[in-house]
Write a structure and sequence with these properties.
229 residues, alpha/beta, Ribulose 1,5 Bisphosphate Carboxylase/Oxygenase
Length: 229
């Protein structure tokens, strides 16, 4: 049964006319009635079913306003690069011994970065890393010889955008405590990334069918896009 708190929230919000994200921010924040700092989340429904192919989006976007989350980052690199990784702020750093620990199931991190030279060793651990979504990927910036940049991006507000088989993308763009300006910057950064993905994929019509915004424990609202993507 819905809690007393939830019952006090607006009902049938999906029946309302779509509003721009900028106009929805005060309402979304008002609905954050829990004691913790709720996340503000977006849910995209994309037009991934095409006649000749299926659109699959998997990329990363650096949110200029940050995410408000602390990400535990691990780095697998050569011995001579371990200090660089530590100086960049990596939480766990290691070489061959660390690879063996990962092989044994030690996955006490949320993001894994590795150098190109070490990727051949990690590529054999697909069964361990794959199901957790932890396998480093050059396209996502997690296979890189620029350790400092990769760690900084992972720590400072990088999120992955990926659609499921039904064409849904869920992404958090910040916290209730964020300023409206921070949230708007993050929102625009995600739209710009999706716009680039549309131009990279040969599809007819709009990429985005619907967008909804909500808070962690709140209710959902339709978002009106400023232009078609």
């Amino acid at each position: 049964m819905p809690s007393k708190r939830f019952k006090k929230l607006p009902e049938k919000t999906n029946d309302l006319n779509a509003e721009t994200f900028e106009k929805l921010i005060p309402t979304l924040k008002k609905n954050c009635t829990t004691k913790f700092d709720e996340s503000l989340d977006l849910s995209f429904q994309i037009n991934n079913k095409q006649k000749k192919s299926e659109v699959n989006i998997r990329t990363v976007v650096n949110l200029p306003g940050g995410t408000g989350k602390k990400v535990k980052v691990a780095v697998v690199c050569e011995e001579n690069k371990t200090q660089e990784a530590k100086d960049a702020g990596a939480d766990i750093v290691g070489s061959d011994e660390f690879v063996e620990k990962i092989k044994g199931g030690e996955l006490n991190f949320e993001k894994l970065i590795c150098t190109t030279g070490m990727m051949v060793k990690l590529s054999k651990l697909g069964k361990v890393l794959g199901p957790k979504g932890l396998m480093p990927n050059p396209k996502l910036g997690s296979v890189s010889d620029n350790i400092k940049e990769a760690v900084t991006n992972a720590k400072s507000g990088q999120v992955e955008i990926r659609n499921d088989k039904d064409g849904n993308i869920g992404v958090s763009i910040g916290k209730k405590s964020f300023s409206d300006e921070q949230l708007i910057k993050n929102y625009k950064a995600i739209l710009e990334t999706l716009e680039k993905e549309k131009s990279n994929n040969t599809l007819k019509g709009d990429l985005i069918k619907n967008v909804f915004a909500t808070s962690t424990m709140g209710v959902s609202y339709k978002v009106k896009l400023g232009k078609s993507i």
